Amino acid sequence: MLERTDRRSNRPGSASTRRLWAALGVGFFLALAAGPVVAGSVEVRLQLPVRARLDLSDRRTVTVAPFLVVTQEGQEAVQRRGLDIQREFERYLFRLLRRQTTLKVVETGPVDYPIYDLDLLSRDIDFWSALGERTQADLILTGSLDFDIQDRSGYRTEEYVSPFDGRTYYRQVLVEQTGFEYDIVMQVMDGRTGELLYSDNFKDFKSFEGEGADPLMGMFENLYALEDRIAGIFAERRVETIRTLFTD
Predict the structure, then answer these.
(1) Assigned domain for 148 exists
(2) How many domains does the chain have?
(3) Residue 41: in which H helix or E strand, if any?
(4) Residue 230 is part of which domain span?
(5) 30 within a domain of the structure (yes/no)
(6) pLDDT, tens digit, 9 for 90 and up, residues 208-237
(7) Residue 220: which of 88, 71, 82 has the closest Cα?
(8) Is position 227 within any domain?
(9) Sign of the CA dihedral with 213 first, then 219, 224, and 225 last
């Protein structure tokens, strides 16, 4: 005699089916709880090499042509201190190239630009190839400078405790600050063909307490912040980075 099976018990909404799924869910949760929930990790500092932006395999010499100086904010403060932005920057470049690259740095001598628009000047391959031939330089470094001195003084809200009632109040305090911003366009020309090989824009801003901060100090603080990026055009650099390794 055949037994009749109650098919209703296997339908998805039946009580037995719900009990089955509940039992499976509890078992799955216990299986997860038995294993490791959070994997271990350790941070490792690595020194990674970064290749130079330019291929210097067949280039041995470089010369620095005068950088074009863009109109500056705070120019009166620069003039009062007798600061020659162009000359100081070119001295800095000479020291940097000799210290951090294997290139021989040669003098350009007097340079008479046919035009003082950097965008148009960078396309004048005849001018740059002639300068390269005259100086016997494989590479010519040039560009533009914009060094701004900005008055960043203003009022700042700060809290203080009254010595009379011990309560905390807020007041506006004048804070004198001077900001120095460097905006440098650097271009490298091929001394043989006069063609533009590389162009980039480097920017940095530094703020100092006080209204009469030294422009020369502000200028070199900007340059030191950009030094690795500038040297990286011509030389391999090593940068430090942090990597996370996951352990069992």
Answers:
(1) yes
(2) 1
(3) strand 40-50
(4) 45-245
(5) no
(6) 665 556 666 777 777 888 888 888 898 877
(7) 88
(8) yes
(9) positive
